Amino acid sequence: MNAYRLLQILLFAFGVVFCLVGPLAIVWPSGWAWHEGPPAASQYFMMIAGVYATLGVFMIIAARELAACQYQGQGVTKECK
Questions:
Q1: Do residues 9 and 64 touch, judged by C-beta distance below 8 A?
Q2: Is residue 60's pLDDT more than 80?
Q3: How far apart are CA 54 and CA 58, in angstroms?
């Protein structure tokens, strides 16, 4: 397994976990929620769960289209498709 494939797998795995922060807080609140009461009772937690879910979606998209935009070195990037 090369580094490129490993990066794709890790991006996808972390993207899925980030998308599941909200549902995981309902199933296992002591491990994922950092406030008292149900997850939907805190506007702050719902906002953070939304930010994490958005980040997770973009990580999954990045894992699928990893070759579209890669760092080329010296601060110059290739044009994204």
A1: no
A2: yes
A3: 6
